[in-house]
Specification:
- The protein is α+β, with helices and mostly antiparallel strands and 277 residues long.
- The chain has eight helices and ten strands.
- Strand 3 and strand 4 form a beta hairpin.
- Helix 1 (4-18) packs parallel to helix 7, helix 4 packs across helix 7 (194-213) and helix 6 (171-181) crosses helix 7 (194-213).
- The protein starts with a helix and ends with a helix.
- The chain binds a DNA duplex (16 and 16 nucleotides) through helix 6.
Amino acid sequence: MPELPEVETIVRGLRPQLIGKKIRFIRVRSDHVLTGSPRGFRRVLEGAIIREIGRKGKFILITCDQEIRLITHLRMTGQFLLAPRERVVDPHTHVLFDLEPGTDQLRYRDVRKFGRLAAVARGTPAISLLQDLGPDALEISAATLFRNLQQKKRAIKPLLLDQTFLSGLGNIYVDESLYRAGIHPLTRADTLNRDQARLLHRHMRQILRQAIRAKGTTVSDYRGPEGIVGGFQRFLRVYDRSGDPCRICGQTIQKTRVGGRGTHTCPGCQPWPQKSG
DNA sequence: ACTATCCCCTGACGGC
DNA sequence: TGCCGTCAGGGGATAG
């Protein structure tokens, strides 16, 4: 579900609500979403005071005193919600954090249970997932992106989705970025020239920033921390628009499958390069 | 190094 | 109405 702009929106929404709060008590309704045992999870986090909330790629990092951390990946349907303790608990809510001061609860809800929550104790090295993360899509420079693309023979779309190569992009923003840069998703990465890499870099940044401003994209079930719906979907030009005309050339937006993922392209604006040269 | 294919889960939707 | 197949903003494991 959430990609970089949605995760950034969530982080920004949680920050003012959580900074300075103490995690007083944790209730785990389903340990499926925890990376370790509920016992260990609670032992590490109960009593911790939240100091910082950040993002790395699509991971949410909640840092407490003494470098205790809660690291979360929402995968497809994970959500953080803030609710008064007495509010009815939705059946897909798996972890509840009582906060102090106040009467609010931070709730982790996840319909498909693909998301994961990990508690990192003081002095414990960062989990391997974070170490393997590639540069953040909003932090990488055009020059570095170009240099890194030249080392890869893979098709550009699966490469951009590979979080060890670049972190933050998901299916929506990859399709949108490639469309705006006029690059076909199956183009071999090392065949892109410097100008194409620059164009891709510029559009990717522009789209991500615009999407953050719009508070993300809601196609079906993404919601921000307060249940807020994103607004970027009205700016989408290919994603979820198959069968509709391209806004630039009028040709019909196609939906195909690339690397196992639904892929949206405009045949006019994103020519297939390896065929025609 | 890279691709293809499951798999993890649940729900929504279209066709019959 | 119900059943069945397919698909979904992600990513890990495994076989070729």
